[in-house]
Amino acid sequence: MNEQQNSILSKGRQEFDRELGRLEAELILMSGLVEKAIFDALQALKNRDIDRSQKVINEDDHIDQTELEIERYCIELIRRQSPVAGDLRRIVASLQIAGELERIGDYAEGIAKISITMGGQPPLKELIDIPRMGDMAVSMLKRSLEAFISRDAEFVRTITVELESEDDEVDDLYTKVQGDLMELVKSDPDNAERATYLMWVAHNVERVADRAMNISERALFQATGELVSGTTMIDTNVD
Amino acid sequence: MTLNDTDLLSQAGSIENILRFDDIEPVLESNDLSVAYGGQTAVSGVSLQVPKNSVVSLIGPSGCGKSTLLRCFNRMNDLIPSASVKGTVNFDGQNIYGPEVDATEIRFRIGMVFQRPNPFPKSIYENVAFGPRINGMTDDLDELVETSLRRAAVWDEVKDRLNDSGLSVSGGQQQRICIARALAVNPEIVLMDEPASALDPISTQAIEQLIKELSSEVTIVIVTHNMQQATRISDYAAVMMAGEERVGRLIEYGTNQQVFGNPKDKRTEAYVTGRIG
Questions:
Q1: For tag attachment on chain A, is the N or C end more exposed, with fewer CB atoms within 10 Å?
Q2: pLDDT tens-digit readout, A124-174
């Protein structure tokens, strides 16, 4: 292959690298929108700020649109570049992560809708464990994205193990919140409606942590080719 | 990895990156195979096992020795006076470079299809009947020609013009006639050197489909520059690379899924993703 051919090849490859960089930037942007949505939804719930809850609901359209744009872009890259190996894993992982982020956006919207439905009523109990769950879930989300962007197999493995442990903590908190709310319902059945609201909020936050876990698993796939789901590991090199 | 990593490019792949089959007898196996032209080594130390009834792609940048290696598998390099081959190529229990082996017989049993369709300037019928005639197979030639053209998926297109020149049909049809010509002597292996690179997309699709269908009865080793084609048709892929000294070496051999999904050698990753070429 002569220098001119190499130069053309190299320019084509550079262009593809720029496109992959743009895809990553879009995902980081979407992740920022989603983190903000979860944070705002929980703050609005705590402060009984109906306007802020409504903004979270309105903003979800933007998140949905961003997901569609990322999806379209991934399809375009697959169609045009016919990616293989690390490029293919990167695009497939991006596509899946965009889907996970979109669902996290839906959980934020869900929390905001519950908050509006609660109207002027204060939460049944002081919000301590749910915001803690929320902080942990958002932190997990940030770190799962950091793992994805690093493309460093060892770093991703470390983060995935840490997130598994934190996901267990979020699950434990969720169980505790459920128990506390059930006690309040038992003590006064009139609490049932308000307990159900908080139960749903806690459920949504717990799901955010699960989705962050999924993102770290996609980061692992991108970096290593290993497909994992929970504790089930599939080696993609085996026919 | 950059184009300047020449030291890395000139190294053979580590043993764990070269697939070996412990539980089956490969139909073809090269051991420490090296080829030189006029004293200049072109391919060095290739040990490769080809399982029966599989499609194995040989891929790698231009000048890495893929075609040279392919030609070793049926002693086509014998036809180049300056070529010398070291190492062994075992086929059907014997080294095809052994002193007692008839190279012409090997070429019947291990057929070859080239980049550009090369039908003889004879009728379509005579093109396909050529090999069997040389082998003394004169009975049921009509049936053999039809079966071979059917196996090459070109019968329906040429059945009414068997007496027309093999050069009178389209490039895609010519190539399938050449494949029929190779199949007519019932080879166990067919070697293909970029068989679709000179064809249009529809003809390419027909050849790829044909390769997939043939692989249930014939082993196919194919050189291709088309990464997507290799991904579509091959069961296994062997990646070759040459450094500045232009000596081709095998750097990775694995399943299609491994080589194109998650290569073990970073040079393979760089090649299949277009970072080096």
A1: C
A2: 778 889 999 999 999 999 999 999 999 999 999 999 999 999 999 999 999
Q: How many angstroms separate the CA of residue A196 from the nearest CA in chain B?
A: 47
Query: Which residues of B204-247 form beta strands (DSSP E)?
Result: 219-223, 236-242
Residue B2: which pLDDT band, with cuts at 50, 70 and 90? low
CB-based burial label for B14 (10 Å; 0-12, 13-18, 19+): exposed
Which residues in chain A touch residue B273, judged by CB atoms under 8 angstroms apart?
13, 83-87
The count of residues in chain A is 239
Q: How far apart are the first and last CA of chain B?
A: 12
Q: Does A82 touch chain B (CB under 8 A)?
A: yes
What does each C-alpha distance from B263 to A219, B51, B266 come to in angstroms? 17, 20, 7
Q: Is A224 part of the contact surface with chain B (CB cutoff 8 Å)?
A: yes
DSSP string, A27-51: HHHHHHHHHHHHHHHHHHHHHT-HH
Complex prediction ipTM: 0.72
Angle between helices B171-183 and B141-151 (to 10 degrees): 120
Rounded to two decimals, the pTM is 0.82
Give the residue among A204, A230, A211 at the shortest CA–CA distance from A102.
A211
Measure B275 CA to nearest chain A CA, in Å: 6
CB A136 within 8 A of CB A166: yes
Q: In chain A, whose CA is at the least distance from the CA of B254? A: A237
Query: Dihedral sign, CA of B213, B219, B222, B226?
Result: positive
> B260 with A85: CB under 8 angstroms?
yes
Chain B CB contacts of A16 under 8 Å are: 274
Residue ranges of B 60-119 with Cβ closer than 8 A to chain A:
61-63
Q: Which two tokens stand for residue A86?
A: 């690390």
Integer-rounded Cα radius of gyration of chain A: 21
pLDDT per residue as tens digits for the range B53-88? 999 999 999 999 999 999 999 999 888 889 999 999
Q: Is the CB of B2 inside 8 Å of chain A's CB atoms? A: no
Q: How big is the A-B interface in CB pairs under 8 Å? A: 53
Q: Is A225 on the interface with B (CB under 8 A)?
A: yes
Distances (CA, A) of A184 to A119, A125, A180, A189, B243: 20, 9, 6, 8, 74
Of A6, A10, A85, the CB nearest to B262: A85
